[in-house]
Specification:
Elements lengths: L1 E7 L4 H12 L4 E7 L4 E6 L4 H15 L4 E3 L1
Antiparallel strand pairs: 1-3, 1-4, 2-3
Length: 72
């Protein structure tokens, strides 16, 4: 399943790159893209575990950029 999400308060391109790298390492994630310019997250992950994976994605994003919110 591939979904796009809007990001709120993503403050720097370096943080976006760190988030993208960390999200790609989550088990079940096929691909991820975090765009600082468009403030969007695109993620492709297993359908059966998508909600569980998104919980992990939220945790990763908060560790890298505490003020950033994923709008679902």
């Amino acid at each position: 399943m591939k979904k796009k999400f809007k990001l709120q308060d993503l403050d720097c391109a370096n943080c976006a790159a760190k988030m993208e790298e960390a999200i790609r390492r989550i088990e079940g994630v096929a691909d991820a893209n975090v765009s600082f310019m468009t403030q969007k997250l695109t993620i492709e992950a297993e359908d059966s575990r998508f909600d569980e994976i998104m919980g992990q994605v939220v945790d990763v994003c908060k560790k890298v950029e505490p003020d950033c919110t994923i709008l679902m």
